[in-house]
């Protein structure tokens, strides 16, 4: 598990402005998370991250197919959430950081998801 | 909406040896792509241009070239738009 | 064809013998596994179609329509996130943590090799001292990016039809 954290911490340093990477279940309960001290605490709470699940359910009704990614840009931050149900990958970054680069980090996280899915699977 | 950009991209591709091109906005999101290049490289292209510009911030945006034995990738930023051209050498 | 036949077949000797054959039922009723489940023979089904209870059919059809509409309607107010209790949240976190430890112990992650970009070049000084980018390429990229920036500046939304319309019921 320490190795997982190390890999995620490396990702944090790859993108300037990326504050936090969280991998949670559908209700927002974190399975693993890495933060810097610039990460806004409220945005890492389950009550905020769980809205993604509801948003993609409703979003899938727009007639464009299942939602894969949700990008929300606020005045100071941007939140990028990727649908890997039963897991959700959430990135919290500054509003000026490179969104495309963060989206590109998905392929580095994919191989780690095998273990993480096992951790969530039995409880759901 | 993007007729002009389409025309510019087709223009670029008509040059000899060029296999594909990608244009990226300031947030690393793909604005347009032609040829074999995938839109997934958009983020990295934007990041490369940003990082290289930090070497000499007071000067004009640098041109970055990646080369291997057969192909080259040329990247430059102009304002908020970054462009990348892939060609055979 | 064999599958259809075994579904509609009457309860026969096969069940007692315990061995599956082409007459074995494929589906078993999970609620009541008793022998007084009506076994329909295909001919009976066609002949008795008139006597099927029509009321429940209509009801189920209506329910189905209601269900379909509910799933298709985008209901933003339906964000009733069942907020987890503090203890449940802590409990789950602990569970995940321990399961993750177990999973990591059993599945080793694929080893990531350190990237050395110029590893395959035998004589880097030869490459570095050779001619850099050609003038043509420089011009190519400069003009391309300048033209693209201008083209992108001209992107605007073409207003074709209203996005928000009144839900008008004709008089």
Automatic annotation (TrEMBL), chain A:
One cellular-component annotation, GO: Ragulator complex
Superkingdom classification of source: Eukaryota
Biological processes per GO annotation: cellular response to amino acid stimulus; positive regulation of TOR signaling
SUPFAM superfamilies reported in the protein's UniProt record: Roadblock/LC7 domain
A Pfam family annotated for this UniProt entry: MAPKK1_Int
PANTHER family named among the record's database cross-references: RAGULATOR COMPLEX PROTEIN LAMTOR3 (PTHR13378:SF1), REGULATOR COMPLEX PROTEIN LAMTOR3 (PTHR13378)
Entry similarity comment: Belongs to the LAMTOR3 family.
Protein name in the entry: Uncharacterized protein
Organism expressing this protein natively: Pyrocoelia pectoralis
TrEMBL record, chain B:
Coiled coil: none
One GO MF term attached to the UniProt entry: guanyl-nucleotide exchange factor activity
Keyword Cytoplasm in annotation: yes
Assigned keywords, A-Z: Cytoplasm, Lysosome
Top-rank taxon: Eukaryota
Phosphoprotein among keywords: no
Gene3D superfamilies: Dynein light chain 2a, cytoplasmic
Gene Ontology cellular component list: lysosome; Ragulator complex
GO biological process annotation, one example: cellular response to amino acid stimulus
Main location per the UniProt record: cytoplasm
Pfam families membership: LAMTOR5
Subcellular compartments: Cytoplasm; Lysosome
Signal peptide residues on this chain, from the entry's feature table: none
Family that this chain belongs to: Belongs to the LAMTOR5 family.
Protein name per the record: Late endosomal/lysosomal adaptor and MAPK and MTOR activator 5
Protein's organism: Pyrocoelia pectoralis
TrEMBL record, chain C:
GO cellular component, one term: Ragulator complex
Subcellular location: Late endosome membrane; Lysosome membrane
Alphabetical GO biological process terms: cellular response to amino acid stimulus; cholesterol homeostasis; endosomal transport; lysosome organization; positive regulation of MAPK cascade; positive regulation of TOR signaling; regulation of receptor recycling
Alphabetized GO MF terms: guanyl-nucleotide exchange factor activity; molecular adaptor activity
InterPro entries in UniProt: LAMTOR1/MEH1
Membrane topology: Lipid-anchor
Keywords for this protein: Endosome, Lipoprotein, Lysosome, Membrane, Myristate, Palmitate
Domain of life (superkingdom): Eukaryota
The family this protein is said to belong to: Belongs to the LAMTOR1 family.
Protein name: Ragulator complex protein LAMTOR1
Annotated organism of origin: Pyrocoelia pectoralis
Species lineage: Eukaryota, Metazoa, Ecdysozoa, Arthropoda, Hexapoda
């Amino acid at each position: 598990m320490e190795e997982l954290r190390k890999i995620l911490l490396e990702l944090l340093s790859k993108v300037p402005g990326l504050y936090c990477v969280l991998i949670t279940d559908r209700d927002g309960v974190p399975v693993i998370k890495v933060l810097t001290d610039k990460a806004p605490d409220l945005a890492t709470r389950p009550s905020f991250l769980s809205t993604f699940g509801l948003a993609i359910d409703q979003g899938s009704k727009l007639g464009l197919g299942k939602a894969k990614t949700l990008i929300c840009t606020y005045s100071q931050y941007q939140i990028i959430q990727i649908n890997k149900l039963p897991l959700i990958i959430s990135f919290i970054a500054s509003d000026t950081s490179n969104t495309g680069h963060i989206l590109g980090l998905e392929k580095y996280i994919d191989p780690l998801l095998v273990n993480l899915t096992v951790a969530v699977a039995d409880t759901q | 909406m993007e007729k002009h950009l389409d025309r510019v991209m087709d223009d670029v591709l008509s040059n000899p040896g060029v296999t594909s091109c990608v244009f990226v906005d300031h947030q690393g999101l793909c604005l347009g792509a032609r040829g074999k290049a995938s839109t997934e490289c958009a983020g990295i292209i934007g990041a490369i241009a940003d990082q290289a510009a930090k070497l000499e911030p007071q000067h004009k945006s640098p041109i970055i070239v990646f080369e291997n034995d057969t192909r080259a990738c040329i990247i430059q930023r102009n304002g908020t738009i970054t462009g990348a051209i892939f060609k055979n050498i | 064809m064999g599958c259809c036949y075994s579904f509609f077949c009457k309860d026969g000797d096969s069940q007692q013998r315990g061995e599956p054959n082409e007459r074995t039922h494929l589906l078993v009723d999970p609620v009541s596994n008793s022998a007084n489940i009506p076994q329909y023979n295909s001919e009976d089904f066609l002949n008795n179609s008139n006597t099927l209870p029509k009321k429940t059919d209509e009801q189920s059809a209506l329910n189905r329509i209601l269900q379909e509409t509910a799933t298709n309607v985008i209901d933003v107010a339906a964000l009733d996130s069942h907020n987890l209790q503090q203890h449940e949240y802590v409990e789950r976190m602990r569970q995940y943590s321990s399961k993750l430890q177990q999973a990591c112990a059993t599945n080793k992650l694929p080893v990531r090799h350190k990237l050395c970009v110029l590893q395959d070049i035998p004589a880097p000084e030869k490459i570095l001292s050779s001619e850099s980018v050609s003038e043509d390429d420089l011009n190519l990229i400069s003009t391309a990016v300048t033209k693209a920036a201008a083209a992108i500046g001209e992107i605007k939304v073409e207003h074709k039809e209203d996005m928000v319309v009144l839900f008008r019921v004709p008089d």
